[in-house]
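Researcher: I'm preparing a figure for a lab meeting and need a structural model of a single chain. I don't have an experimental structure, so a prediction will have to do for now. The sequence is pasted below. Please return the structure as tokens so I can convert it later.
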Amino acid sequence: MPISPIRQDNRLYYPKDSHEQIIMWCRNKGITLDEFALQVGLPRANLVNILKGIDAAPTRIAQAITDALRG
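Model: Understood. Here is the structure written out token by token.
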């Protein structure tokens, strides 16, 4: 599943539809968004804000999201 952050003002932001894409991915894998957030290393609320493009994603979190999706 190709979900890539976009660099704006030297910060990484995910497209606003990333949240819905991750929810669908989780459903297909049989895991909850809470479990995905644990894999990424964030509280669920913080992950949702990043995936909705509200908050920037630190580089390590963007990499953790990529790794979890490949996982």
